[in-house]
Design brief:
Radius of gyration: 29 Å
CATH class of the largest domain: Alpha Beta
Number of helices: 15
Number of domains: 3
CATH superfamily of the largest domain: Bira Bifunctional Protein, Domain 2
Shape: globular
Strand content: 25-35%
Helix content: 25-40%
Distance between the termini: 22 Å
Structural class: alpha+beta
Length: 572
């Protein structure tokens, strides 16, 4: 393609509301434009890269015999109500009504839709196993859309669904998809790590996330330096920390004016954080939950959700919910409190192994010292569970080795659903004995647009994007120093045509711009190779080839350009 025909409106300044590198560079490189919070238009360069990612996905789905379909984005409420998820999915679901007041949603995911479709089409074990997939837009009303394509309200997703006759068959389908995902992300050039994960609102049993490791990632990934253990920190399994046993001192109330955080309390009373307990009040499914961890630990909200057996992810309790529960923000502990149907107390296992610690006195500007949980909590009326976040100081749950924490961007996830949806939606097939059995299902997602952003987060420098070759919008840009010079343009065109002839995705920058502008745009957009045709080319018969990844520049004779470019691209 000719750059003069390409719509790529580059910007020299970074938009003020761009949060992360991928968003900044995609806006500056003329790849996306923001329409509203979390809603973007893809311009030609971004769309080319998206299509390349999708092609990789298509090829790897074909390698495991997954078949492509396309389902409606607008989904009737009835199938979600039948599965029990219409209310469970929460505020992220975008709901609407038609002119007849019938309720619908914009699909955030398609478990209900695919199950409803398949139960009307597949009726015998002879038709199984089967896996269907699609690539389409999904819609989720994010509470805080941010980070460009990494957390948006409308995004491109590949979702797949497998149907088997039993758990053994599901296991095969699950691991086939798992390994296909490994190939997809490897071919996209990402540095990623598969990790154990929570199933969240999708449900089911086993799940793995594929995390592209990057400092801008929202998720924390815990992994072992000695074995292959890796997990989203939300499901990391911390051990019980037993404090050194002490003789229990008398419970005592002390004034702590204006000390609403545990750090402020510890400072006022000259205590280490490990000698305090921290209260976090959450709300889930109409229940207020008081979660208690040591002052030097953090609450794992997903673990709290599991501890109270809720189907809805917890949120921080509101002031009104605190007041209704009789709690005084900043001065809360389980001492003297009892559970009710709408109020639960969950205490971390390590807290129960502490002695003479400090916690809220359940009234303003006061705390207790010398709390001994086994003595002072209503131990028969609380839930004790591992609800603290695992840390790098914990031992590996698998081998006892040293743990590390890294930031990750979730680009894919695989789930074993089992019969969660087939049973609720009455989706069955006839087994060999002629009896109806529920389908055993798996579901699998890849964030296509998020993969694009993750690649930029991993591969960039101060000048712009450094694309992995496989998903670069163009593999090579040919830059004549002066597009007004006919001799330079003639050589540039011949090089460009020769590259296209061998299948290289090339761009000829024929714009009548200064060379410096073209070079800056080439670095910003991130073409893997830049071929420069200059006056020196006319004299020496050689062009300059610059590798974007490492900045290396070499002289290449014109008659060797196609060979050298092809060989170099194969290394990128």
């Amino acid at each position: 393609m000719l750059a003069s025909k390409l719509y790529a409106p580059t910007l020299r300044e970074t938009p003020a509301d761009a949060d992360v590198i991928s968003q900044q560079y995609m806006l500056r490189a003329g790849m996306i434009r923001k329409m509203a919070g979390g809603i973007y238009s893809y311009l030609p360069l971004a769309w080319k890269s998206i299509r390349k990612i999708e092609q990789i996905v298509h090829e790897e789905m074909g390698s495991i015999d997954a078949q492509e379909i396309m389902m409606p984005i607008i989904q009737p409420a009835e199938i979600w109500q039948e599965s029990g998820r219409w209310k469970v999915y929460g505020a992220e679901m975008i709901r609407l009504k038609d002119r007849h007041e019938r309720e619908y949603c914009l699909g955030p995911t398609h478990e209900e839709m695919i199950t409803t479709l398949v139960k009307g089409e597949v009726n015998s074990y002879r038709q199984l196993p089967v896996t269907f997939y699609q690539i389409q837009n999904k819609y989720r009303d994010e509470r805080r859309p941010r980070y460009g394509l990494m957390r948006s309200r409308e995004f491109i997703m590949k979702d797949a669904y497998s149907f088997d006759i039993d758990e053994e068959g599901l296991d095969v389908s699950y691991w086939n998809m798992y390994h296909a995902y490994e190939r997809v992300f490897s071919r996209c050039g990402l540095y990623f790590k598969p990790v154990e994960a929570d199933s969240g609102a999708i449900g089911g049993s086993n799940s793995h996330e594929f995390m592209a490791l990057a400092e801008s990632g929202e998720a924390d990934v815990i992994h072992c330096n000695s074995c292959d253990y890796a997990a989203n920190i939300e499901i990391g399994k911390p051990g019980i920390i037993k404090a050194v046993e002490e003789e229990a001192s008398e419970l005592q109330e002390v004034p702590t004016p204006d000390a609403k955080t545990i750090e402020a309390v510890a400072e006022q009373l000259h205590l280490p954080l490990a000698k305090t307990i921290k209260a976090v009040v959450l709300s889930t499914d109409g229940v207020v939950v008081l979660a208690i961890v040591r002052g030097d630990h953090e609450v794992n909200e997903i673990a709290v959700q599991h501890a109270v057996d809720s189907t809805i992810e917890p949120e921080m309790a509101t002031e009104e919910e605190l007041q209704n529960a009789g709690l005084t923000a900043g001065f809360i502990s389980p001492v003297g409190l009892k559970q009710t149907e709408t109020f639960k107390i969950v205490v971390d296992e390590s807290v129960m192994e502490t002695y003479n610690v400090c916690g809220g006195a359940n009234k303003k500007d006061a705390h207790y010292i010398n709390i001994n949980p086994k003595r002072d909590f209503n131990v028969d009326d609380i839930i004790v569970a591992p609800i603290r976040l695992i840390t790098a100081d914990d031992a590996c749950p698998n081998c006892g080795g040293q743990l590390s924490i890294a930031k990750g961007i979730e680009v894919g996830q695989v789930f074993k659903l089992g019969t969660k949806y087939s049973e609720s939606l009455n989706a069955t097939f006839l087994n060999q004995g002629g009896r109806p059995n529920p389908f055993v299902m798996g579901c699998y997602g890849i964030g296509v647009s998020r993969t694009l952003a993750a690649a930029i987060e991993q591969f960039h420098d101060e000048n712009g994007i450094i694309w992995p070759r496989a998903i670069a919008p163009f593999e090579v840009v040919v830059v004549p120093i002066n597009a007004k010079d006919e001799a330079l343009m003639d050589v540039s065109t011949r090089v460009y045509e020769a590259l296209k002839a061998i299948g290289v995705d090339a761009l000829l920058d024929d714009r009548k711009e200064r060379a410096g502008v073209k070079f800056k745009d080439a670095d910003l957009i991130g073409y893997p190779l830049r071929i420069t045709v200059s006056k020196n080319t006319l004299e020496s018969g050689a062009v300059e080839m610059k590798i974007r990844k490492n900045g290396e520049a070499i002289e290449v004779p014109i008659d060797e350009v196609t060979t050298v470019v092809a060989d170099t691209l194969n290394t990128l």
